[in-house]
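Box 3.1 A note on notation
Throughout this textbook, protein chains are presented in two layers. The first layer is the amino acid sequence; the second is a token string describing backbone geometry. Keep the layers aligned when reading.
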Amino acid sequence: MDPNNSTIIINAYILTMDEHLNAYPNGYVKITDGLIEAVGQDFQGSPEQYENLLDAKGGIVIPGMINCHTHAAMSLFRGLGDDEPDRLYRYIYPLEKEYVTPEFVRLGSELSCAEMLLSGTTFFADMYFFEEEVAMAAEQIGIRVLAGQTVMNRPLPDADHFEDGIKRAEEFCRGWKDSSLVEPCIAPHAPYSLERNQLIQIMEFSKEHQTDVQMHVAESEREEKFISQLGETSSVSYLNSLNLLNERLLASHCIRINEADIQLLEEHDCRVSHNPVANTKGAHGTCPLYELLEQKIIVGLGTDGPMSGNNLDLFRQMAVAAPLQKNLKGDRTLIDSKQILSLATLRGAEAIGKGGSTGSIETGKWADLVVFDSESVRHTPLHDPYSTVVYSLQASDVKDVFVSGKQVVENGILVNSDLNQITNKARQFISKWPNL
């Protein structure tokens, strides 16, 4: 062991979130060379042999959380048009056409990466334009990202037409394939915003470059009507007819799906991002989470973009995910807090294709960890740690965050970036917009 590249966390209430839900009320985690060396109960030994010692003082420790769907740069649009009708076409698209530039994406992504790390998210799935700017922001601040270069059948801020978008996606995936924090992929916007032949080309791209595919699927009534006009019964069945359902697809939303769709998603090992706050706020409904979990489909939680859900806080998603299902079914026993926390950790990691590397505190996995403030009023008392994390704790209760064993948040403060500088740059940038 290299003592100069090691950390030990002691006196922690560790929720490993592994398949057996092992927990250690007086636990420890040993970290060496960015990986978890050991985890267990009642540390016996000399912590002095480790370069870094963190005493959790009884605080809960969980794996870093996974945000399975967002558009990070849109934090600069946060709070705009919240109650506008037909918001996508009449509001968002015109805003993006006028304001989205590489600088916009870089500054908005820096702001969002800071928000996510400070709230315990260590890995996020992003889909937007100028995705190389998202990648650079993530590397700078020290957060992981599944970065999806968006393509559509219309002029975009970074591509005049679909072919330009594919070329940009190809360059992006090749340029970032060796990054330790960035996993590049392609992100076709939705079944209704691409032609059949273009969707088939996306499938071929994914196979050729061995990349994941992020896509909005079965999100809205508008999409449902479009699919019906094609003579298809649903977005899921339409994608299946094009051979786009497979283990590389991360389908976001999946609100308007039926039993046959759920069966197709299960048969093809598709993954789903459930975004409860943004979906209900947009009056789209909510995905049938209970049915998806019953069918053993891999589901993670997402915030959607900060213009849709207004923040990137997975605590809000956890707090409403189960109650929505309990209310729909009239059964308060459905989907317990252990299941919900799993969606934000291990299942979320599986949803973005990284369950073997992160999402649980197990030997050999990346040391992506969150330590909560044991002195927080919401941490007290600690009867059920799973319920405490899901229903009581908030982003402000996150004390320390590690990514690959490197501390990126210390005592609630970013380590690699200056938060005041990030927020000031964002304010200065939007102050130049004349029409808002």
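The CA atoms of residues 112 and 390 lie 22 Å apart. The chain has a mean pLDDT of 95.
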